[in-house]
């Protein structure tokens, strides 16, 4: 993690904040008696170095031995970074010693070389053990990590923070380093501006910076709570949603010189803070709760330890935080933080497991410690000596050159991958286009291979399309048109975004598809149906949100409910001929599919407005990445038993309150065989991840969907079809009902 540095203290070991911080004196700004003029550097405070080691030990232990739970250690790092950086920057700015070029060189000279080493090693590990389909995203994250914006890359890639697993990014942990890197690029500028304004106005620079830090911290905390309620995965990585943790540390650093705490109180504060820090990972599910208000648990713990540091009382936590193991972990903490996570992800890919066992965790821990010690001794410390010998500006030039070389090499590699992917995607797009027009090649029947009319054996020996390496990019065309709402769209929009799948000057019918990504994935099939029938086909979608009515008053900050209200109002105003939704919901772990009552309430409201509802039965969800499975073990099946995925009867038929006017399409026989739901059907890869269909496979569902609509939704057709095909009728319900 990135931090700001200050000159080493005149004696005693340096105190850092987070893994990798250059030596920094304690900025407690008080001697042990607690009373010193504001701004005077304090003596070395050993609690801070020990707290850094403890926080890192918690991070690694919970990642390896705690089933991936968030320990709160990273939140402690953020507080410590803001605390030490702010005090150091203010003192140097007041002495007119803060020069940005020198400062940035001092800060990043020790941080960047170990990070670049680990990024290079991660690239090698990805090439060795990870599926080809992950290389492009991993390359983007390597580039973003080297340039300190990987948290935004994860937001744009819609990656949620999660426990280690085969689908987890090997660079997920770099998000916090990027947040701090951005903070430490911007905060020195803020401090310089504040100090300059204070000099001009002849007021206290510490007081003015206290106001600025306090105001921005409060604003960040309010923003974080709003975004956490609306889109927690985005909030987890968002720089501004995390600033308040850094800001609180900085605020305390500015306030501390004016505080006078009795020596007898400090040990109590220290032990209380230590208890909060250690207990956080055991009590809270930080991956789901942070950076919401519960993040105050570890943050408050860190603040209390800082408040309790120093003093002459001998029964505080200082002795515990000075034990040799914690000092050793603190000394290698930056490198240990860098190494442990990619090694963990590589281990899971190499062993084919979805979690690490005790033996594997111990092995990863041992290898991580050895590599971290070597990295610190052979890379981190020499880089620091280079900075001390040649100065911060030259160090900054050297760091910039190194980052440029890594970034340039990564960009070149990504360009090569892009050329490969473009050729593979073109083959899949050609297949999707021909399949939608019922003229697909015989080698790739896709969903039609499961129909009664298909009597020939599926050809062997042909490569699967889309290739697993590009399956993640095989998305519906509408997915990139900017008309699907996501986290960047606020709840205040009265009119939701709407996609036009197919338009007609004088359409025979208007059909609106509504829902989340499981609705979006059906758009290639529905678009072809609309083209053939002369319909207007539209899409109302927000990622992660299905159309539903609240059972009880909804959370006003939840953007899903705001979108649902707006979408319902738009539908009632439009009064389309049909609204198509995914009616059931499957699970990767629980048997059978279910119907959510709030969704049924929405169907009732539509029916009361004279709008008929067409439901589609959900597709299977898997507990593993299907393209990776198909790439690594194409003959292994990569399947789930059908009776594990689906209930014996389509659950929408027995759900209470479903309006009689609704019709229900069960096309699962074109996705799953009689006994198994597999990853590949008719030489076409069904899934682009663990639960979303590829656009190519969805295109092969156009004909089955068309026939199902003719059989069940005759009112949509000027001339209702005759006897429906056996392929599309539900096995439990007479055709046409």
Automatic annotation (TrEMBL):
One GO cellular component term noted in the UniProt record for this chain: membrane
InterPro entries per record: Acyl_transf_3_dom (IPR002656), Acyltransferase_3 (IPR050879), SGNH (IPR043968)
GO MF: acyltransferase activity, transferring groups other than amino-acyl groups
One Pfam assignment: SGNH
Domain SGNH: 497-705
Region ranges (Disordered): 1-44
Protein known as: Peptidoglycan/LPS O-acetylase OafA/YrhL
Organism field: Promicromonospora sukumoe
GO terms for biological process, alphabetical: lipopolysaccharide biosynthetic process
Upper taxonomic lineage: Bacteria, Bacillati, Actinomycetota, Actinomycetes, Micrococcales
Record keyword Transmembrane present: yes
Bias-annotated ranges (Pro residues): 1-12
Transmembrane segments: 72-90, 111-130, 183-201, 208-228, 240-261, 268-290, 296-316, 328-348, 360-380, 392-417
Domain Acyltransferase per the UniProt entry, residue ranges: 47-375
Keywords, in A-Z order: Membrane, Transmembrane, Transmembrane helix
Highest taxon, organism lineage: Bacteria
């Amino acid at each position: 993690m990135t931090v700001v540095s200050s000159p080493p203290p005149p004696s005693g070991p340096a105190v850092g904040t987070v893994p990798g911080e250059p030596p920094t004196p304690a900025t407690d700004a008080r001697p042990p008696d607690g009373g010193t003029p504001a701004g005077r550097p304090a003596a070395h405070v050993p609690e801070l170095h020990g707290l850094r080691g403890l926080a890192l030990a918690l991070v690694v232990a919970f990642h390896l031995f705690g089933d991936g739970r968030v320990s709160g250690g990273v939140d402690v790092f953020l507080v410590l970074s803001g605390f030490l950086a702010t005090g150091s920057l203010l003192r140097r700015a007041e002495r007119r010693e803060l020069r940005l070029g020198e400062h940035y060189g001092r800060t990043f000279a020790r941080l960047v070389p170990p990070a670049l080493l680990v990024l290079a090693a991660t690239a090698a590990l990805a090439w060795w053990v990870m599926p080809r389909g992950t290389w492009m995203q991993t390359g983007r994250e390597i580039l973003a990590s080297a340039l300190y914006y990987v948290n935004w890359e994860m937001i744009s890639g819609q990656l949620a923070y999660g426990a280690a697993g085969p689908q987890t990014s090997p660079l997920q942990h770099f998000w916090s380093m990027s947040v701090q890197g951005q903070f430490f690029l911007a905060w020195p500028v803020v401090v310089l501006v504040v100090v300059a304004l204070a000099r001009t106005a002849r007021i206290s620079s510490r007081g003015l910076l206290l106001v600025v830090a306090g105001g921005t911290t409060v604003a960040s905390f309010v923003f974080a709570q709003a975004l956490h309620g609306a889109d927690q995965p985005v909030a987890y990585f968002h720089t501004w949603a995390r600033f308040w943790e850094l800001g609180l540390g900085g605020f305390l650093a500015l306030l501390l010189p004016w505080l006078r705490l009795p020596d007898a109180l400090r040990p109590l504060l220290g032990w209380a803070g230590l208890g909060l820090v250690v207990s956080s990972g055991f009590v809270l599910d930080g991956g789901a709760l942070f950076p919401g208000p519960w993040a105050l648990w570890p943050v408050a713990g860190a603040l209390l330890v800082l408040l309790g540091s120093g003093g002459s009382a001998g029964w505080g936590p200082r002795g515990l935080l000075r034990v040799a193991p914690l000092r050793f972990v603190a000394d290698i903490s930056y490198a240990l933080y860098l190494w442990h996570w990619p090694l963990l992800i590589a281990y899971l890919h190499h062993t084919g497991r979805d979690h690490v066992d005790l033996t594997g965790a111990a092995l990863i821990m041992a290898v991580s410690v050895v590599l971290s010690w070597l990295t610190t001794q052979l890379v981190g410390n020499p880089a620091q000596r280079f900075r001390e010998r040649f100065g911060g500006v030259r160090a900054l030039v050297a760091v910039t050159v190194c980052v440029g070389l890594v970034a340039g090499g990564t960009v070149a590699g990504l360009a090569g991958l892009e050329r490969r992917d473009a050729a593979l995607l073109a083959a899949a797009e050609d297949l999707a286009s021909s399949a939608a027009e019922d003229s697909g090649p015989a080698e790739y029947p896709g969903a039609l291979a499961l129909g009664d009319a298909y009597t020939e054996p599926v050809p062997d020996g042909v490569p699967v399309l889309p290739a697993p390496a590009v399956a993640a990019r095989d998305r519906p065309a509408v997915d990139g048109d900017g008309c699907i709402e996501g986290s960047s769209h606020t709840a205040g929009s009265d009119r939701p975004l709407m996609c036009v799948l197919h338009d007609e000057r004088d359409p025979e019918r208007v059909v609106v598809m509504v829902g989340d990504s499981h609705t979006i994935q059906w758009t290639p099939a529905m678009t072809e149906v609309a083209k053939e029938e002369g319909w207007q086909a539209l899409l109302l979608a927000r990622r992660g949100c299905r159309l539903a009515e609240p059972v009880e008053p909804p959370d006003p900050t939840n953007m899903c409910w705001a979108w649902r209200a707006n979408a319902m109002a738009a539908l009632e105003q439009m009064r389309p001929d049909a609204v198509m939704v995914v009616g059931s919901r499957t699970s990767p772990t629980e048997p059978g599919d279910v119907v959510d009552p709030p969704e049924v309430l929405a169907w009732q409201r539509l029916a009361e407005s004279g709008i008929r509802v067409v439901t589609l039965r959900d597709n299977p969800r898997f507990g593993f990445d299907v393209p990776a499975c198909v790439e690594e073990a194409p003959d292994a099946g990569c399947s789930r038993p059908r009776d594990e995925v689906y209930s014996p009867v389509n659950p929408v038929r027995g759900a209470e309150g479903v309006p009689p006017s609704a019709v229900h399409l069960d096309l699962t026989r074109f996705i799953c065989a009689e006994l198994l739901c597999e990853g590949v059907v008719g030489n076409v890869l069904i899934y682009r991840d663990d639960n979303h269909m590829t656009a190519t496979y969805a295109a092969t569902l156009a004909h089955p969907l068309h026939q199902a609509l003719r059989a069940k939704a005759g009112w949509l057709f000027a001339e209702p079809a005759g006897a429906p095909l056996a392929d599309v009728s539900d096995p439990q319900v007479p055709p046409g009902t």
